[in-house]
Amino acid sequence: MNKKLRSREVDRLFEGILTLKSVEECYAFFEDVCTVNELLAFSQRFEVAGMLREGRTYLEITEKTKASTATISRVNRSLNYGDDGYDLVFERLKKEEKE
């Protein structure tokens, strides 16, 4: 975790997010916290990460998500050199889908 990011306020935000119990609750919270463009950018990066993990090409990803190559590169860098947050979430989603 980036030490510059860690703070009491960010901890509190994440603790609040962890209390959400449904997709509908997430919509209500994130629509209040984020702009529409911020939320769409988050979801686009998440989709890009999933496609990169599947081995899709930048061209395929751009065509499907309309993400710029800069965004795809940034997500790819997070997948390769980040804190494995994407991997954690994707593995948990995969496990839930199997159950």
Description:
The protein has 99 residues and is mostly helical. Helices cover 75% and strands 0% of the residues. The protein is built from six helices and no strands. The protein has helices at 8-17, 23-33, 36-53, 58-65, 69-81, 85-98. It is globular and about 40 Å long. The mean pLDDT is 95.
What would a concise description of this structure say?
The chain has 99 residues and is an all-alpha fold. The protein is built from 6 helices and no strands.
Looking at the structure, what is the overall shape? globular
Backbone CA Rg: 15 Å
Low-pLDDT stretches: none
Number of strands: 0
What is the count of DSSP helices, taking H or I runs of 4+ residues?
6
Question: Secondary-structure element sequence?
Answer: HHHHHH
Derived from helix and strand composition plus strand pairing, the structural class reads mainly alpha
* Beta-strand residue fraction: under 5%
End-to-end separation in angstroms reads 30 Å
**Mean pLDDT across all amino acids:** 95
Residue share in helices? over 70%
User: Mind summarizing the main beta sheet?
Assistant: none
Secondary structure layout:
Elements: H1 8-17, H2 23-33, H3 36-53, H4 58-65, H5 69-81, H6 85-98
Helix pairs in contact: 3-5
